[in-house]
Amino acid sequence: MLWYKMWRESRIRFAIGAAALLWMCALVVALQQRVRARADEPLSYARYIWAAVYKANVLDLFILLVIVLGLGGVLQERAQGTAGFTLSLPVSRWRLVSARASMGLIQVALLALLPALLIPLLSPFFGEAYSFARALQFSALWAGCGMLVFAMAFFFSCVLPGAYSPAVASVAGLLAYSVLADLSWLARFPALDLFGTMHGAQLSVQAAPTLASFAAPLPWLALGLYAGIALGLIGAAGSVVARRDFS
Amino acid sequence: MTDDPIIETRGLSRRYGRVEAVRDLSFTVERGQITGFLGRNGAGKSTTIKMLLGMIRPTAGTGRVLGYDIDDPVQSVQIRRRIAYVGEDKGLYGYMSVGELIRFTRSFYPDWQPQIEARLLQDYQLPLGRKVKAISKGMRTKLALLLALARRPELIILDEPSEGLDPVSIEELLQALQEIRAGGTSVFFSSHQLSEVEQIADRVLMIDHGRLVMDTLLSNLLNNYRNITVEIAAQEPMPAFSLAGVERTRVTGRQARVLASSNVEGIVDYARALSATVQVTPVNLREVFLDMVRDTT
Amino acid sequence: MSVTMPLLFKAWRESSGRFLLGAALLAATCVLGVVCRDGLIGWYAPRGEFIGDRYVGYIYRLIYGGPARALFVILSMVLALGGLQRERLHRTVGFTLALPVSRLHLTLAQALLGVGQIAVLSVLPLLTLMMCSRLAHVSYPLGQMARFALLWFVGGTVFFAIAFLSAILFSSEYAALAISFVFSIFYPVATLIPPLSRYPLNIHHIMSGMAMPYFDAREALLVGAPPWMLLACMMAVAAALIAVAVQVARQRDFC
């Protein structure tokens, strides 16, 4: 039932996020002819989808929604007066934290999957085709990198008081990360470039993959690194919650 | 001071979807009295109070507090300027210190009384520098009371004021309410603590399932209300006690317990005419309350 | 007795954490930009991309048209959140609504303070860059900073108004935040749809000057007179949104 609690607390955010992502993807597909006609140079449909969905607007939306999904938790419950009830449940704080983190990570993965479900399905209605395997590759990148974004918001919501400060800190943290990743001495390590990995530029130019070759071009080292850091951040958040006094 | 009622409602109703939280509530509260507002959890007490304060709009009916229409946003501000209110959850801004919250609240009321504030601060031993979120529930209740009492409001509305207070503080609170009544302030308070109501109230309003089920002076209740226990012989059918003065009848087997607000002699004569054994006992507020609300669930 | 000051004080205490954190982060971005310019300029302003002073192009890309502006937009929305719906969750709405002030006063005070905070945030890069650039012996035109501050203030006020309305409409504080974020991304895409595409409606572009007649992209400088009519229209839209929010707050039951 702990999962049910976590689902109930985040389901509106998740539903808003899912609806917004689907709507944005649909809009991008629907506007493809008009935007591509206005492009400075010829733009293939695959490249257009990459530029509009996986590199720009929809990706930005995904990142912001993942931050919102990371917010909440016992520290925020304290302000609403429900922390006492939650902490009196016969479960450890580690379990509370891990249940919330697990639910959040599942929601992040589902959000990441949505474009892959919609774009290949919708494209034929507008006279285009988009490979499901390619869309899945991008979803894998979003899910892997989204884990880190989620973990950052999750960590801040466990250490910073106030409902909105963790959101501000997360956005600022990501922007700072993006700026720092551009520093020349850091730019030598592409695995550290979270947004570069998320964009998946190399996938956009590759020929349409098949499901059989799905895993081959994914940056597994970077994704593993992010997953490790994300788990570390969630662990640190759990440790903070486990030690904190909730008066 | 006028003789107009300080609170007056006519057919006041509030519906949440299919649930009728308050139904056709009509009552008046006289000036200079302490009125206890009784009811079970979810009976509609807090909804009524919130309608009086303009926090919730009635779905039907009208209400006036100090002569102002409760449904008019402009007049509602006038109501709140002249009354004091302590809410049921004593929700106060946790991010302010006790001192800051007092200064904040003071700035809205020209009738603020610094000497009362100082006295209550001393009585309640509130830590001025501590954040409201860091003080105990009892302290928070005392702070909420200080913010309401450190003025000269014409009416003070309290929703479960003693919740979270220790027995000594409750006694002090009841005393304070009697003192401010003596100073001309009317008091309207809801409570589950019947002993508190019995101790200080002049008048009792009882609400159940959103309906008013009793509106009487406490002295009238204690002096005139009676429990009449009627035991009918085995061969006789149980009569219907539809007589003047009968408030409630509870039948258990051959025994009927009649709560009478008046006409006790008439009811007793009626029962005796049926060859029943009759016993008349005085009642207290607790018994009346249980009688009025228990069998209607 | 004026009740505006205590209400502004209350609104300040409710948002000061977010505001100060945001201001510190925005200022830090500007300082970082100036201090780390040697490492970043190659990325943000590659040689030959801008005519004239490369540092001007670099500051534009990093601050006025880049990450700092994105942070400012997010802050503008976050500052608008809270209010009576949040107080309901925190169980303080009873105390607030029992104060002898109208809901109009309550919500306007919150809006007024928020717009004031946006004004401060919009001039923050000007102040920070002016000081840092001097210390680092580089310079960015003061007039440009002032004009960008104006564009930021107006654009930020519109985003603030959207989030302000969202915070009144949605009872969940995170739902209001999510809706505001969705709007900030969805809106520029929606402006591509005809007939909207014919008008300069993209607030992000209006704030950064991108693809606007009052901006010279080659020099990364604002040119000509500020778009007063456009800015006035945006302020009118923001005012209308805040007015709707106030009206909703006046009508709503807070139980």
Automatic annotation (TrEMBL), chain A:
It comes from the Bacteria. Keywords: Membrane, Transmembrane, Transmembrane helix. The chain crosses the membrane at residues 54-75, 96-119, 139-160, 167-187, 220-242. This is ABC-2 type transport system permease protein. It comes from Dyella mobilis.
UniProtKB/TrEMBL annotation, chain B:
PROSITE patterns: ABC_TRANSPORTER_1, ABC_TRANSPORTER_2. Coiled coil: none annotated. The keyword Signal does not apply. InterPro entries: AAA+_ATPase, ABC_transporter-like_ATP-bd, ABC_transporter-like_CS, ABC_transporter_ATP-binding, P-loop_NTPase. It comes from the Bacteria. This is ABC transporter ATP-binding protein. The keyword Transmembrane does not apply. Keywords: ATP-binding, Nodulation, Nucleotide-binding, Transport. GO terms for molecular function: ATP binding. SMART domains: AAA (SM00382). Belongs to the ABC transporter superfamily. Residues 7-234 form the ABC transporter domain.
TrEMBL record, chain C:
The chain crosses the membrane at residues 61-81, 118-136, 148-168, 174-192, 227-249. It comes from the Bacteria. Keywords: Membrane, Transmembrane, Transmembrane helix. The keyword Membrane applies. This is ABC-2 type transport system permease protein.
